Amino acid sequence: MPAGALRALGKLNVPIYRLTRGRLMGKVGQAPVLLLTSTGRRSAKPRTAPVLYLADGERVVGIGSNAGNERAPAWSHNLKANPDAEVQIRGERRQVRARVAEGVERTELWRKMNEQYAGFEDYDERTSRDIAVFVLDPR
C-alpha cells in the first residue's frame, strides 16, 4: 500500500477507534490494533497512529513495518527520539516506554507477530531496511 494511502487510512482509523473504543477499526484480520501516541521528534506535539500489536504479558509489541515501504513509519522515529509514549487498547490507556528488541528477543517476537499476522514477512521482503520490533513496557 502506498505510504500516502496508509497515512490517510491511519487518520481515519484513529477517531473511529477512539469513538468505538476499538470495536470498529480495532483489528486487521485477526491481528489486534492499538493506538500509539508518541511525541513528534521535530514538532514535540503528540502524534497518534494505529499499530498492529502483540500482547506479551504486561508489555505489548509493535513492528515498524510501514507496510514494507522503504521509509520507516514516523511513529518509530518518534519512539527512538523519545521512548515515553501512551497506548490505547480498546478503552484502556496506558503509559509505556519503548525500546527496540534485538538478537534472540527480536527473532522470537518477530516469529510471534507473524503467527498472528503473516503480512510482516511480505513487508520484510519488499524493503531493504531492517524493520524495527518495538517492545512497549509499562511505566
Task: Walk me through what this model shows.
Helix content is 35%, strand content 35%. By secondary structure, the protein is α+β, with helices and mostly antiparallel strands. The longest helix has 18 residues, at 3-20.
Write the layout of secondary structure elements.
Layout (H helix, E strand, L loop, with lengths): L2 H18 L6 E2 L2 E9 L6 E11 L2 E5 L10 H8 L2 E6 L2 E9 L2 H14 L2 H8 L6 E6 L1
Antiparallel strand pairs: 1-2, 2-3, 2-5, 3-4, 4-7, 5-6, 6-7
Quick synopsis:
The chain is built from 4 helices and 7 strands; from the N terminus they run H-E-E-E-E-H-E-E-H-H-E.
| Total strand segments | 7
Order of helices and strands: HEEEEHEEHHE
What structural category characterises the helix and strand content?
alpha+beta
What is the percentage of strand-forming residues? 25-35%
Distance from N terminus to C terminus (CA atoms, Å) equals: 34 Å
The amount of helix comes to 25-40%
The pLDDT mean sits at 89
- Contiguous helical run count: 4
Tell me, briefly, the overall form. Answer: globular
Which residue ranges are poorly predicted, with pLDDT under 50 across at least 5 consecutive positions?
Answer: none
Strand neighbour order, sheet with most strands: 2-3-4-7-6-5
